[in-house]
Amino acid sequence: MDKLGENLDRFRRSCKAKGFRLTPQRIAIYEALLACEHHPGAEDISRAVRTIYPDISMDTVYRTLNTFSKIGLIHPVDGHGRPRRYDPIVEPHHHFRCKQCDRIIDFYDERLNRVSPPDYILQKFTVSTVKVTLEGVCDQCSQPRKSTRAAEL
Amino acid sequence: MDKLGENLDRFRRSCKAKGFRLTPQRIAIYEALLACEHHPGAEDISRAVRTIYPDISMDTVYRTLNTFSKIGLIHPVDGHGRPRRYDPIVEPHHHFRCKQCDRIIDFYDERLNRVSPPDYILQKFTVSTVKVTLEGVCDQCSQPRKSTRAAEL
DNA sequence: AGACAAATAAGAATTATTCTTATATAATAA
DNA sequence: TTATTATATAAGAATAATTCTTATTTGTCT
Ligand SMILES: [Mn+2]
Ligand SMILES: [Mn+2]
Ligand SMILES: [Zn+2]
Ligand SMILES: [Zn+2]
Q: Cβ of B25 < 7 Å from strand D?
């Protein structure tokens, strides 16, 4: 089975397991999450789903994203002052966020997966997640204007 | 000079250097930031400052916090769906966030300061900050009820 | 097919933050 | 010290993101 199929299958099983109904809206929202790159926000999801279900309400989008988050199907990603975004990839990975274009780019690194808090923290707190997040300027934004224009200057 | 004095001095110099006026509101807001533990939000700051300046407006609080952030006097801290919070400590340090009580607790660790992204990321992106954030349940919240009650049970 | 709990659409409500504008004031210089 | 002026402020309107309320619809299980 391909990656998309795997994800959809996990989605169906998660819903069943938790007693959630398999509605067309939920399926469309989950598919939109998988299709969108760079961690879509509720507005992105709504826009994508509207092409198929023009009457989808923002409330359903938000409610569904919250439901998915609660059962661990997706992870909410901080919006840094902008609207919250969502990540359909729940396997361990890390994020680079461009301060200029606000893209959030995934990357995978074993070394970072193994970053661990100091012992005195582990003794005091129950640590469930360790997140490493990079911020800076992405390759696209650090290029001197558009590549076509750059030749002219 | 003590730590508080040092901070206030740096604050005065930063304002001067950037040509910002040293208003009573700004001083009070900065002092409130230093006094509050666990990374206050705009509402916390407003409440603290109101005891001295009852007429401080939310707009001034937000505007001032934004100004301070821009000149690097403080750092905004993600609110995870709740209101944004602010950190008057700009020296390198790390955060543990309790998912239950929402406290954000500082800790210092040299090893985590040195966490570095993989080379292929550094080649592609200009990385300006690396944040390690822990989430979980804090010592207070994981205690079985209140300590006084615990003895009874 | 029928029953029913759960999900939805629509739009009101709430919350956090920013904007607008008229007034006040910190900094600077006469 | 006072006058000048650009900057900061208070007040409240406006905006944006998210949640809530309610009446209706629809999956799921007989
Ligand atoms: Mn991701
Ligand atoms: Mn801190
Ligand atoms: Zn970029
Ligand atoms: Zn706690």
A: yes
pLDDT at A149: 42
Q: Measured between alpha carbons, how far is A44 from A85 in angstroms, rounded to an integer?
A: 9
CB spacing of A137 vs B125 below 8 angstroms: yes
Distance CA B45, CA B49 (A): 6
Task: Tell me the pLDDT tens digit for each residue of B7-42.
Answer: 888 899 999 999 999 999 999 999 999 999 889 999
Burial track A33-60 (b if 16+ CB lie within 10 A, e otherwise): beebeebbbbebbbebbeeeeeebeeeb
How far apart are the C-alpha atoms of B85 and B106, rounded to whole Å? 14
Which residues belong to CATH 3.30.1490.190 in chain A? 91-153
B1 CA → C19 C1’, Å: 41
Query: What confidence category does residue B145 fall into, taking pLDDT thresholds of 50, 70 and 90?
Result: low
B134·A115 Cβ contact <8 A: no
- Pick B138's closest partner by Cβ from A78, A118, A125: A125
Query: What does pTM read for this prediction?
Result: 0.87
Q: In Å, what is the separation between the CA of B83 and the C1' of D19?
A: 15
User: Which residues of chain A neighbour B107 with C-beta distances below 8 Å?
Assistant: 117-118, 121
C-alpha dist (Å) from residue A55 to A20, A27, A44: 21, 15, 15
How many CA atoms does the CB half-sphere of A92 hold within 13 Å? 12
Look at domain A1-88 and name its CATH class: mainly alpha
CATH class for domain A91-153?
alpha beta
